[in-house]
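Worked Example 4.2. Consider the chain below.
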Amino acid sequence: MATESRSGLLLKIIIPVAIGIGVVVWLFGREFNIDTLRAIKLTPTAAAGLALAFVALFGRDFGLAWRFRSLSDMRLSWKSSAKVTMLCEFTSAITPTSVGGSALSMVFMNREGIKLGRATAITLTTLMLDEGFFLLFCPLLFLFISPERLFGFAQGAAAHDLQVLFWVVYGVISLIAIVLYIGIFRSPRTIAAVLSKIFSLPILRRWKKSIDELNESLMTTSAELRGKSLRWWAAPVAATIVSWLSRFAVVNALMFAFIPEADQITVLGRQFIVWALLTFTPTPGGSGVSEMLFKTYYADIVFGPMLMVLAIVWRIFTYYVYLLIGICMIPTFIKKK
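Applying the procedure from the previous section yields the following structure tokens:
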């Protein structure tokens, strides 16, 4: 049984890595220029930028661990919170991004001593906080950055299509955030009844059992969280903001390292759009899609092979590092069942 689990896990690791490497090789093959690569030097500015990227990487994981710890009312230690965070990031790296590691966070928390009902409540709450961040951050973003700066790299129909795609994704994210908010804080029974009705339709009936389980989880979550004070919510909300802004800031740090003249506000804004689109990519960990989105959204800021070099470094910081950590952690997890 353990051998089968390890074989399946190895396959789930190989597939996204192969997709990502394949896309990078294809893009390099089209744009490779050895002279550009030779011109890259590790200057003091580049070293400082890479150091800042490591700080942003730490900020991302610190925010996630802080959120798990605060939502558990400190029942999770910092060590356990960090372990759950890394396992979630690893499972996000080997599953489609629309599923992600958060779907298994309740299992990981249960292994760290949190009762399954409470772990389910925490999982749904983290999902609501993440979707809520995107819901609220977007208006602030467009308040300070014009659509021309965010989508100005494309012209004509392409620019229009990219904007339409983003707003469709943003609409879905907003809907999920609103449904979770109503389900947790306002009227969980109403949401449960509506979902149950929808998934009673013949075309959706195959997921009815899963929706019934989700409805039970909503009830549990609502009972757990409706009485919490605003002061209690301050920590998980702050942790969510720290984690997401740190995630975006990795590219800001890399741009500072190698393209110091880049407009950092535009770079940050486009990262928000890239991560929003990655929410619903079908490939494991967004492999292939991530590299293409990076190339698309920063092609007017970074030119030639340097664009793909930065894309690879960005993926190392935001993806491959979690694959490596997970490979080290998962065998022990499987062995202990």
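Residues 93 and 285 are 4 Å apart (CA to CA). The chain has 14 helices and no strands. Compare this with Example 4.1 before moving on.
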